[in-house]
Design brief:
With about 350 residues, the protein is of the alpha/beta class. It contains 14 helices and twelve strands. Helix 4 packs parallel to helix 9. It binds D-mannose and manganese (II) ion (MN). The site of D-mannose has 15 residues, from strand 4. It comes from Halalkalibacter hemicellulosilyticusJCM 9152.
């Protein structure tokens, strides 16, 4: 397991690289050029700049999260070919600096969705929260406004520029079914995966978060059965997964440890975090500790250890604790605690195996 840490870039993250450096066992940064709109090719100079910054602190930049997919690709519009060309150019440029894994997602309109970014917990910490009833009763436009006003810095997937066109986007998705989305994903993969293979970059799709339809939009990366289907769309190791335990775990029917065992050779990037899911479908993000949530982090780590996982892993989100001012879900403190929990389990399993 190779531990990495998400960093949003100079001027776009509250956390200095000096501090990430002090978290035990972190070898690389998970990064992106967040200001480049989906669909445009990333400039090589900008990519090299991030590499320089990371290398100064001894970090590698092997993992990119995300190179986002233009909506026209997800919608299957004729203009998609132009955006796929740009995507290929970005892959080629990332290969030039030695990137190994590209994380992306195929969720229509929104990236991850929550109804509350700073929900108060009984211990005074706050965390990302999803309330089913609020989603059903809220106009997406209202939610977007609320999220944008409270997030401190622009969040990937919630860029005001893009979301200005929200009404139009929703209109475009009218009548687009899950089957359509599968077809558009396959079209994209058939063009991209040969390029990724040629450049030895593993493509790693992130599951839908939450793993069910929100605001009536189609979603497909939601379950074991659907991931199996995804892997067969292009049956190539370079067509792989970012297995996110917290996203998938928000549906109590998903058994993430079992997915780790079933898909081990296709998992290139592990997102590890816990959530507590309630009967009514609400969920709250918790500490990484197994007993704090409904995702069995211990079982998941055991599964990764049993399959000799050598891919990249990061703590996914954390709570906001100790009065830290941070991006929602991306503070330093709770993610650092999460890392120590994960290393604790991992080291113990190593020790047990040696004995
Ligand atoms: C949330 C993340 C997602 C993830 C993208 C990957 O914090 O797990 O935003 O980066 O869905 O494309
Ligand atoms: Mn994730």
């Amino acid at each position: 397991m190779r531990m990495v840490f998400r960093w949003f870039g100079e001027g776009n993250d509250f956390i200095p690289l000096e501090h990430i450096k002090q978290v035990p066992g972190v070898e690389g940064l998970v990064w992106a050029l967040h200001d480049i709109p989906a669909g445009e090719a990333w400039p090589l100079e900008r990519i090299k700049e991030v590499k320089r910054q990371a290398n100064q602190y001894g970090f590698h930049i092997d993992v990119v999260e995300s190179v986002n997919i233009h909506e026209d690709i997800k919608l299957g519009l004729p203009s998609r070919d132009r955006y796929i060309e740009n995507y290929i150019q970005t892959i080629e440029r990332l290969a030039e600096v030695g990137v190994k894994v590209i994380c992306y997602n195929f969720m229509p309109v929104f990236d991850w969705t929550r109804t509350d970014l700073f929900k108060e917990m009984s211990d005074g910490s706050t965390a990302l929260f999803f309330e089913n009833a609020k989603i059903s009763n809220t106009d997406p436009m209202e939610l977007v406004k609320e999220i944008a006003e409270n997030s401190h810095l622009t969040m990937p997937g919630w860029e005001p520029e893009r979301l200005k066109h929200l009404t139009n986007l929703f209109r475009q998705y009218e009548g687009v079914t899950e089957e359509d989305l599968w077809n558009h994903l396959q079209y994209f993969l058939e063009k991209i995966i040969p390029v990724a293979r040629k450049h030895d970059i593993k493509m790693a799709i992130h599951p839908d978060d939450p793993p069910f339809s929100v605001f009536g939009l189609p979603r497909i990366m939601t379950s074991k059965k659907n991931i199996e289907r995804f892997l067969k769309l292009v049956d190539d190791r370079y067509n792989g997964l970012t297995l996110c335990s917290g996203s998938l775990g928000a549906n109590l029917e998903n058994n993430v440890a079992d997915m780790v065992r079933s898909f081990s050779d296709r998992i290139h990037f592990a997102h590890i975090r816990n959530v507590k899911t309630f009967e009514n479908g609400d969920f709250i993000e918790t500490s990484h500790r197994s007993e704090d949530g409904t995702v069995h982090i211990l079982d998941i780590m055991k599964a990764y250890h049993d399959v000799d996982f050598t891919g990249y892993a990061r703590p996914d989100h954390g709570r906001h604790i100790w009065d830290e001012k941070c991006r929602p879900g991306y503070g330093l403190y709770d993610r650092a605690l999460g890392i120590m929990y994960l290393w604790g389990i991992w080291d113990a399993l190593n020790k047990e195996k040696e004995a």
